[in-house]
Design a protein that fits this description.
Elements (H helix, E strand, L loop, with lengths): L9 E4 L3 H12 L4 E4 L7 H5 L4 E2 L12 H11 L6 H20 L4 E2 L22 E4 L2 E2 L18 E2 L3 E2 L2 H8 L5 H13 L2 H6 L5 E2 L1 H16 L3 E2 L2 E9 L2 E9 L2 E6 L3 E4 L8 H7 L19 H8 L4 E2 L4 E9 L9 E4 L9 E4 L13 H15 L5 E6 H6 L26 E3 L2 H8 L3 H17 L11 H5 L19 E13 L2 E2 L6 E3 L5 E7 L17 H19 L2
This protein binds flavin-adenine dinucleotide (FAD).
């Protein structure tokens, strides 16, 4: 892949969703792209994600949405910190980008049975049914040998850690929606009768969620003959007369120069796996192991490179925050890592407390807002990071928690013994539990008794739990009078430690509405673009709805390539 400027017009750094889409679109606009990827697998965090995208005015929304409504919502949640031109570009171009994905054979849809509400339900312009779109599964067999170089989805999104589920089927099984047994049988049958794949690998031929998105993009690259160089890491950017003209890289450990006749697009993810960059930029002390992203390459190489050539940077103190728990996977100890709690905080019979034994937020705000509440509470009390989720036997029996299936499916006697008192703490009394995890017994008891009174009335005057559409979406529809509130009363009692995790950092070079990297004076650095988590996010400090991170990475990939093709 060692090449000079005459060979590639566009060098894309990183093979997440934004990077791959940029390369395909560049090709379709008549340019010659290459993607370089540091890892020996392609797909980055995008491959292990839910694959959902947040698309205002998408074709399924009809007159529920309008550009003005979506823009108004975005302007409010981003607190005036993102230029309107950039927000407008997102609103205008995101649906166009989805239509382009469809032309590549990657189909997105909204699911009327799972309307995932926007994350700020109390802000004008939010939609109760949300703007989130889900990806249709794909047959991984279409990738040939490239199937095996796709970064594999996490086990928690699979049945028995290996059988692929999409978000729709997963929801049906988890919530035991009528007919769920049929879905289980159909899924098992599909997996076990796929003899060609069963003879070769445990991996499921069916690609779902993030794997479906990345698999679909990789297939489009293969069809077009676009090169992808694995094990090739950008180490710096070369400039000439103020223009970015090449990427310096290490290919299998060998230094190479890859000329970029027209542009370099940085798409190399955030810096969440770098302890040093976290220490320098995040508001409080955190640990990379708390992140739900793969534990390897997202260490801020783009940030280092753009700083060397004078780019302005922004939102370095921000991340797509998410509470995480550390589940020790016995089947796959090599992927032991923190797992995001996206929805579990919404079920009845549970609450979250800081280490003083006090509640500090509405537990079932969005995962991003929960993370921000942890930061806020820790700044005030010094007793968050970590905090604790407390629940009782009713919760344990009925509801899942990350990779811990509910008791009806995985009773305590079948839970791996080493999970107890490392991940899952259990005691016959609340006082015993408090003592075990080091919380003040009296305060915890007072918090729980107050919460239990609220649960009986179905109202939470302290934090309003269960009183907005987002909360209710994640509750138990069969639980009354409030689907998010139930007393913590039935022994035994349980606790899991919650860390301040993330789905990636979201600060980096400041970019304009064309995704061009800017200097402090606002002028673009010619030939340099940045998208996704390696750039200052179009969402600023906010997380407007599920899919806003992949949605923005791919939309600005689309905008960047349009701009590159227009130039010259
Ligand atoms: P990545 O996808 O991480 O890609 C960056 C790539 O660049 C990596 O492959 C990396 O190895 C490579 N790289 C790094 N440094 C270099 C270098 N020097 N040279 C070459 N290559 C390099 N978001 C959504 O919008 N919807 C969801 O449903 C969703 N679900 C999620 C579920 C989970 C469990 C997690 C962890 C995250 C989820 N997210 C979701 C967040 C989303 O996945 C990420 O924010 C997004 O994938 C970031 O995309 P990216 O292209 O910026 O980075």
């Amino acid at each position: 892949i060692v090449a000079d400027a005459s060979e590639y017009d566009v060098v894309v750094v990183g093979s997440g969703a934004g990077g791959l889409l940029a390369a395909i679109r560049a090709h379709d606009l008549g340019l010659r792209p290459i993607v370089i990827e540091k890892s020996d697998r392609y797909g980055g965090t995008s491959a292990v994600s839910g694959g959902a995208i947040w698309i205002p005015n998408n074709a399924f929304l009809g007159d529920q949405d309008s550009p003005a409504k979506a823009l108004g919502y975005l302007e409010k949640v981003t607190e005036g910190r993102v230029p309107t031109a950039k927000l407008e570009r997102y609103v205008q171009m995101a649906p166009e980008m989805v239509a382009y994905l469809k032309s590549l054979g990657i189909e997105y849809y909204t699911n009327p049975y799972m309307p995932y509400p926007d994350y700020y339900p109390f802000v004008k312009g939010s939609l109760p049914g949300g703007r989130t779109m889900l990806v249709r599964p794909m047959d991984g067999g279409a990738l040939g040998e490239e199937f095996f170089r796709l970064r594999e989805s996490y086990p928690e999104f699979k049945m028995f850690d290996k059988i692929a589920l999409d978000l729709l089927d997963g929801g049906i099984i988890l919530n035991r929606v009528k007919g769920w047994q049929k879905v289980v049988l159909r899924t098992l049958w599909r997996y076990w009768t796929d003899l060609p794949f069963r003879r070769r690998t445990h991996r499921d031929r069916l690609l779902t969620i993030g794997n479906a998105l990345i698999g679909g993009l990789r297939k489009a690259m293969i069809d077009r003959g676009i090169p992808l160089a694995l094990n090739t890491a950008m180490t710096g950017l070369e400039t000439s007369g103020g223009n970015v003209v090449a990427v310096q890289a290490s290919a299998q450990g060998r230094p190479v120069r890859i000329g970029a006749g027209r542009a370099v697009i940085l798409a190399s993810g955030g810096y969440e796996q770098s302890q040093q960059m976290r220490n320098e930029n995040f508001p409080q002390a955190t640990d990379p192991s708390w992140s739900a992203t793969p534990r390897d390459n997202n260490v801020g190489d783009a940030l280092t490179a753009v700083r060397e050539i004078g780019a302005a940077v922004e939102f370095l103190d921000e991340a797509w925050w998410a509470p995480t728990v550390n589940i020790p996977y016995r089947h796959a100890p090599n992927i032991q890592r923190h797992q995001a709690l996206f929805f579990e905080r919404g079920y009845p019979h549970s609450l979250a407390v800081n280490r003083l034994g006090r509640r500090f937020t509405n537990e079932i705000c969005s995962y991003h807002q929960f993370g921000k509440a942890m930061l806020r509470d820790n700044a005030e009390t010094g007793a968050n990071l970590p905090c604790w989720l407390i629940f009782d036997a009713d919760y344990r029996e009925k509801y899942p928690l990350g990779g811990l299936q509910p008791g009806w499916s995985l009773p305590d006697r079948k839970v791996p013994p080493d999970w107890f008192d490392t991940f899952l703490y259990k005691a016959e009394t609340l006082a015993g539990l408090a003592a075990k995890i080091g919380l003040p017994v009296d305060t915890l008891a007072a918090t729980v008794s107050r919460f239990n009174e609220y649960a009986l009335k179905g109202e939470d005057p302290d934090f309003g739990r269960g009183q907005n559409v987002y909360n209710q979406f994640f509750g138990d529809p069969n639980h009354q009078p409030n689907r998010n509130l139930g007393p913590i009363a039935k022994a035994p009692f349980y606790a899991v430690r919650i860390d301040l995790g993330d789905l990636g950092s979201k600060g980096g070079p400041r970019t304009d509405e064309e995704a061009r990297v800017l200097r402090e004076d606002g002028t673009p650095i010619s030939g340099l673009y940045a998208i996704g988590n390696c750039s200052g996010s179009v969402m600023g400090p906010a997380y407007p709805g599920a899919g806003a991170t992949l949605g923005s990475a791919m939309t600005f990939a689309y905008a960047a390539t349009a701009n590159i093709a227009r130039r010259n």
